[in-house]
Amino acid sequence: PPALRAALPLADRIAGGWTVRQADVAYYMLVPEPPVQASLAQQFDLTQQSVQGHVDAAGIDELREVCDILEDR
Predict the structure, then answer these.
(1) What whole-number percentage of the chain has pLDDT above 70?
(2) Residues 2-18 as b or e (16 or more Cβ within 10 Å = b)
(3) Residue 15 CA: distances (Å) to CA of 22, 39, 58, 62, 63
(4) Among 13, 23, 48, 59, which is least packed by CB within 10 angstroms?
(5) Is the pLDDT of residue 72 over 90?
(6) Gap between the Cα atoms of 25 and 27, Å rounded
(7) What would the pLDDT profile of 59-68 be if each residue is shown by its tens digit?
């Protein structure tokens, strides 16, 4: 589908700029039922605010929104 062909290179471009920690956080936050940030913070020995910062910097919410739109098609 054209929408998927457009979204995948964009997602690859975004993910290509992630730090290792952002990629670690994204791995857990991009699943259908992501964990609570506080539990993920505990797993990585971070604060919840730090996890939120990684989510924001990595564009996780935007990627999830695109995935939701594509799944609804």
Answers:
(1) 100
(2) eeeeebeeebeebeeeb
(3) 9, 23, 7, 12, 10
(4) 13
(5) no
(6) 5
(7) 999 999 998 8
State the amino acid at position 60 in one-letter form: I
Write down the residue that tokens 């971070």 correspond to. 46
The encoded tokens of residue 41 equal 């913070």
Structure tokens of 45? 């020995």
For residue 24, is pLDDT > 80? yes
Torsion angle defined by CA atoms of residues 27, 13, 21 and 49, in that order, rounded to the nearest 10 degrees: -90
Which positions ≥6 away from 48 have C-beta within 8 Å? 37, 38, 41
Band of the pLDDT at 31, cuts 50, 70, 90? very high
Which position has the token pair 């940030």?
37
